[in-house]
Amino acid sequence: MTQESVDPPALGRLAELDRRWVPSGTVEFDVTRPNKMGYQPGLDGLRAISVIAVILYHAGLPWMQGGFFGVEVFFVVSGYLITSLLLDERAQNNRVSLGQFWLRRARRLLPALFTMLVAVALWASLFGTAEQQSTLKRDLPWSILYVSNWGQILGKAPYFASVDPPLLRHLWSLAVEEQWYLIWPLVFVGAMAVGAGRLRSRGVAFAAASLSLMVLMYVLHATTPASGTISLLGHQANRTNFMYLSTVTRASGLLLGASCAFVWRPWRNSRPMRKFGTRLDPIGAAAVTLLVCIMSVAALTDGYVYQWLLAVVSVLSMVAIAVVVHPDASGFRAIMGWRPLVEIGRRSYGLYLWHWPIFVFGHVYHSGSYPRLVLGGLATVAVSEACYRYVETPIRQGVLRRWLRDQRAAIGGDRARRVRVTAAAVSAVAVVVVGLGLFYASVDRFDPAAGGTDASFVVPVGSAPSVQSTPASNVAATTTTLATLPRRLTVVGDSQAHSLVINKPAGLETTFTVSDGSVEGCGVYDTGTVVSARTSFRRAFGNCVGWAAKWGAAASAARAQVALVVIGAWDVFDLKLADRTLVFATPEADAYYLAQLQTGIDALKAAGAHVALLEVACMRPKDVKGAGVPALPERGDDARTGHVNDLLRTAAAADPTHVSFVTGPTEWCHDAAISADLGYRWDGVHVFKPGANLIFETIAPALLRIPVPAD
């Protein structure tokens, strides 16, 4: 029986059958093909696999370190599904109602989003840390407007930074999709209006466009200068942030799904191809199996992710989609249409929305803890299900529209009731506006390193340079003229350097003009991953590309005479690279470290600064509230810090004219009353004001004896 001979009631019955669940182990069987795509349970099955992978990845399970690829699967599914719906609407009505399309998307997405934002804002205001409140203040406007991906790209906090993650960081992917929903229908209508070419040719064009974007990602990754930044709207955006978060680079998966919708609409074929369908089943199974394998092993910040693996994931996703929507791929459709999978997929949007803030509040994020994952997962399921049942579904089914209609009918000519309703609406808006105003007025920018009791810097007797200065043992003997104070000092390095600068003691400005050239979360590595005995901790250095150039730029901008290098927090670990693991203190690891360090030294020398390598302090890490990094045992190993200091001395000895090793306070290693006092170092690693004062008073003589050229 052909599609044209089926009467409308029969079509309705077929559509209803298509919406029913297929019990596990059974096969869907249709004698005809409908004109429209209809509901495809298998697509929800794919969504379920994707959201589960993302949740397990965010929980820090080591066997799902590539679960972030689940987002790419979402993109390809969205591109295919939305384009198919647009094509169906155009085929049925010979036009596309953009207003209705956007209204449907708004009803589907906005209620759950705004509910989550209100809940998170209330929770953070009442129970959140100062850091969470500060990042929420920064991220909330971007999130409301569905442009949070660009907020993260243009902001100063890298997506891959090691600090506690912001409560709304996960909204970047939803922002990409929402921007797609706004722009793509316009492109679709325009493309369909130009000429009378076949749909297939347009699909090929969009496939070419998506492949071009994939090539663009490779080119950006491979050819961006060593600074690791991209200029956007006058801002220097981190390259890794841009590659991973931007709508431009992530649109390839959406476009690939859209192109597939143009050329692959098997439900419109009037002749069943069950023999062909038996060949599709293993293809679909192989695609999903490969996707799961990739999600298990891929590393987020490795270069190959952007060069080719992301494109492979997109293509595999497209293959899985193409098979699962084919009516004759009965086996694969039955597997992906398994009811528990489909139920999860139908709720995937809510699960994704809610799991992240719950994981952050509950310290599940990257914990690697199965008990925490279970508790956080149960809380996520409960909250997202409540939102799905009582917010998402009713509004999607028009309850708000019906309520407004009933209110208008009830008010009628009742002026008093109209006034009361208007007053209630204005009051509700006022409460929200005033609440946001108070929140923004009361929350300051958070910096965990800022604080402690202030101290006054006193220049140690005899530390000022003389006309014929006698250099320290680690400073090259050079005759120099009396230096003009204050001496220009740029402090570079990781977050320890930042803590030292912002906690500098009062009165220091008469001796040193200090500028901050630190790079948050970055030592001297720009690739690889930390290997720690605390296996739940993960830190990749992909966002640190260009750290040396940033050091040099900071020293140059400040016209620094001396550049103080403060590192060590990230230098005491084994380093896992793409092809090998560098075991700490082995000759291979030492050579790699010295080569990386030399890159930074060369950048500072090129800026005209003398390089002073500060001795790495013996660290006493503690698990304290607000610390973005837990107490890692390697940092508390004095033998490891001692070995790093040996490497620093080696680097200084190789170029004594331009590089010095500066000895720090002995108290960090030999005075337990100071080294373990959180008043000196708030987490045992980063200094407060007393610790900064101790360091500056100790190292000032050596810094002032360094010969520098006269201005």
Low-confidence stretches: 1-32, 223-227, 461-482
Strand content: 5-15%
Number of helices: 25
Mean pLDDT: 81
Shape: globular
Spatial order of the strands forming the largest sheet = 4-3-6-9-10
Q: How is the biggest beta sheet arranged? A: 5 strands, parallel
Membrane topology: Multi-pass membrane protein
Transmembrane segments: 67-88, 109-130, 179-197, 204-222, 242-264, 276-299, 305-327, 421-441
GO biological process, one term: lipopolysaccharide biosynthetic process
Subcellular location: Cell membrane
Could you explain how this protein is built, in words?
The protein has 711 residues and is an alpha/beta fold. It is built from 25 helices and ten strands. The protein has helices at 8-19, 41-58, 70-93, 98-127, 130-144, 148-154, 171-193, 199-223, 239-245, 247-263, 274-297, 303-324, 330-336, 339-346, 348-361, 370-396, 399-411, 415-442, 495-502, 547-557, 587-606, 638-653, 667-670, 672-675, 689-705, and strands spanning 229-232, 235-238, 487-493, 512-518, 529-531, 562-566, 574-576, 581-582, 610-614, 659-662. Strand 1 and strand 2 form a beta hairpin. Keywords: Acyltransferase, Cell membrane, Membrane, Transferase, Transmembrane, Transmembrane helix. It holds the Pfam family Acyl_transf_3.
